[in-house]
């Protein structure tokens, strides 16, 4: 019964702010893992960070804008698209990590070098082909690697964002 009451009191703006905060927290954790735990991210990890950042920005703009129902549906679609793109990248990364050792090609050039030398579209294609560093599982929690957790995270958060922007009532125009 309490859950039903809580759902009735939810408003779009609050869910969008929570989505932004969750994305910001995920990015901060990724930076902590890189600089605090000294786990070097691969190309696909960097792409997932950029995509989570984009998802967080959509949530933030939706919360600040606080549009009417039609506008909220547009934000719901944008949240869904950003979450699906991130989920696709994370799923590809998980698939690469599940391949038998030695079947993923060796490491290539680093991302900064490729961006300097190749056009953006060619860099994206090369990154998704992935090198050996993307196949290495450097960290797991409960038997799930980082990209697996990103997949879980964006699936839940993206679904909640789409639902909130399509189904929940608009918040008052009061300040955040």
Question: What does this protein structure show overall?
Answer:
Helix content is 72%, strand content 2%. Helix 3 (43-65) runs parallel beside helix 8 (146-167) and helix 4 runs antiparallel to helix 8 (146-167). The chain starts with a helix and ends in a 9-residue tail after the last helix. It has a two-stranded antiparallel sheet. The protein contains 8 helices and 2 strands; from the N terminus they run αααααααββα. The model is unreliable at 3-8 (pLDDT under 50). By secondary structure, the protein is mostly helical.
What is the structure about, briefly put?
This protein is mostly helical and 176 residues long. It has helices spanning 2-9, 12-35, 43-65, 69-97, 111-117, 120-129, 132-135, 146-167; strands spanning 140-141, 144-145.
Defining key terms:
mainly alpha; 72% helix; single chain; disordered N terminus; 2 strands; Bromodomain-like; 176 residues; two-stranded antiparallel sheet
Compute the gyration radius: what is it? 18 Å
Mean pLDDT: 80
Strand order of the largest sheet: 1-2
Written as H for each helix and E for each strand, in order along the chain, the element string is HHHHHHHEEH
Q: Kindly state the number of beta strands.
A: 2
CATH top level assignment: Mainly Alpha
Number of helices: 8
Quickly give the CATH architecture: Up-down Bundle
The general outline is: elongated
The figure for the number of domains is 1
Largest beta sheet, briefly?
A: 2 strands, antiparallel
SS class:
mainly alpha
Reported by name, the CATH topology is: Bromodomain-like
